[in-house]
Design goal:
With 418 residues, the protein is of the alpha/beta class. The chain has 2 domains: 150 residues, 3-Layer(aba) Sandwich (Rossmann fold), CATH 3.40.50; 155 residues, Rossmann fold (3-Layer(aba) Sandwich). The protein has 14 helices and 12 strands. The strands form 2 sheets. A 7-stranded mixed β-sheet has the order 9-8-7-6-10-11-12. Strands 1-2-4-3-5 form a 5-stranded mixed β-sheet. Helix 12 crosses helix 13. Bound molecules: glutamic acid (GLU).
Length: 418
């Protein structure tokens, strides 16, 4: 959660700036549905643990709601609400036929065995079954939930419904109807946005140095793809430590080791030294890619950032107060709702494939993702320049105008406004 303001100030600010109806302001000022559930899990030792979980559907005017489910000890209803609001903006910005949602369970998955994690995933789906579905609300992976968890979730839903329902969840394993390219999609989408930014700055990839905070699925894939595209990755970190090599490092072997269970704090690389995770945030690089959790940069450490641009690969990694302080210092922040939208965009492709039964190859997925992301990124940066806005303000303006047009076309669902 964005601790310094509850995470809704940017939405309120842009709603104020735009010429939208009162209906729109009222509809978007709060979530449509916030469901709190108990998630009972039988532990391997026979005892029962009951966790708190939530699913928040923020707004569905553009279509069924869409958004991930996270397992994390810090999850709260407020955080899930912020994340659902951001999904609403993200889907609208990308012009996907979806509203926004998010789910979360307050649990430390590191303390669970594999079987306990499976029971947890199935239990959470049982708890929220009544409000999800391919035409209602479609969960997906998020922090600490990947294809494996999505496989258990789609299976549980199909057991409850007594029929195969592949399109109820995205980010599934390939054999269960997942989409080619979904695992790398968030990192790949971030790279497309970076390419557009670099092109507009007249910078070549080889002249751009990047530090990557967070080396999970999104940050790891981004680092590998960016390095392949010619960018210079000079540092990577996870919660255990950071590696820095001024001459650049090869993230691919590190990511492979990380995926098989090693942590950055224990790894080495040619020409690289271990530095503190905070020191990574303060490196003198062109781009600081934030791919871990919310509030990595707050008003407390915003002054330490030396990078010229921040690429928000995680959701909400720059707090609103830090965002304002960075803007004042001329540090550009490319916003999460644009930068990490590759994930939900390929989720959309997976949903289409699940409904039609026509599965696409990786090339088609990747080229469709690129076709969608490049013009949206250009549009955001153009709008920011034309209206003297930050990229985040521009992204919100484009998204809200789209949502507003739908709200105003629909009326208030009882009586059309004259
Ligand atoms: N959890 C991801 C996000 O925050 C993906 C959501 C989805 O694919 O529905 O964008």
């Amino acid at each position: 959660m964005s601790k310094d303001n509850g995470g809704s100030s940017i939405l309120a600010e842009i709603l104020e700036r735009l010429d939208v109806s009162d209906d729109t302001r009222k509809m978007l000022s709060r979530a449509q549905r916030r469901l709190e559930v108990s998630v009972p899990v039988r532990r391997d030792d026979g005892t029962l643990s009951v966790y708190r979980g939530w699913r928040v559907q923020y707004n569905d005017v553009l279509g069924p709601t869409k958004g991930g489910i996270r397992f994390h000890p810090g999850v709260t209803l407020e955080e899930v609400t912020d994340l659902a609001r951001w999904m609403t903006i993200k889907c609208a910005l990308l012009n996907l036929p979806f509203g926004g949602a998010k789910g979360g369970v307050q649990v430390d998955p590191k303390e669970l065995s594999g079987q306990e994690k499976e029971r947890l995933s199935r239990s959470f789906i049982r708890a929220i079954t009544d409000i999800i579905g391919p035409d209602r609300d479609i969960p997906a992976p998020d922090v600490n939930t990947g294809p494996r968890v999505m496989g258990w979730m789609v299976d549980e839903y199909s057991i409850i419904k007594r029929q195969q329902v592949p399109a109820v969840v995205t980010g599934k394993p390939l054999p269960l109807g997942g989409s080619a390219g979904r695992v790398e999609a968030t990192g790949r989408g971030a790279l497309h946005v970076l390419d557009v930014w670099a092109g507009r700055q007249g910078k070549k990839p080889e002249d751009v140095t990047i530090a990557v905070q967070g080396f999970g699925n999104a940050g790891g894939n981004f680092a590998v793809l960016a390095q392949e595209a010619g960018y210079k990755i000079v540092a990577v970190s996870d919660s255990s430590g950071a590696l820095h090599a001024a001459e650049g490092l090869d993230p691919a072997p590190l990511f492979e080791k990380k995926q098989s269970g090693d942590t950055i704090g224990d790894l080495g690389a040619k020409g690289a030294e271990q530095i503190g995770t905070d020191a990574l945030l303060a490196l003198d690089v062109d781009v600081l890619a934030l791919a871990a959790l919310q509030d990595a940069v707050t008003e407390k450490n915003a002054g330490d950032v030396q990078a010229g641009m921040i690429l928000e690969i995680a959701n909400g990694p720059v707090s609103p107060k830090a965002d304002a302080a960075l803007a004042e210092r001329g540090v550009q922040v490319l916003p999460d709702v644009l930068v990490n939208a590759g994930g939900v965009t390929v989720s959309y492709f997976e949903w289409i494939q699940g409904r039609s039964g026509d599965y696409w190859g990786a090339e088609k997925v990747d080229s469709r993702l690129k076709e969608r992301m490049l013009p949206v990124a250009q549009h955001c940066f153009d709008r920011a320049e034309e209206d003297g806005l930050t990229a985040r303000q521009a992204a919100y303006a484009i998204a809200i105008e789209r949502i507003a047009a739908a709200i105003e076309s629909r009326g208030d669902s009882c009586y059309f406004r004259q």
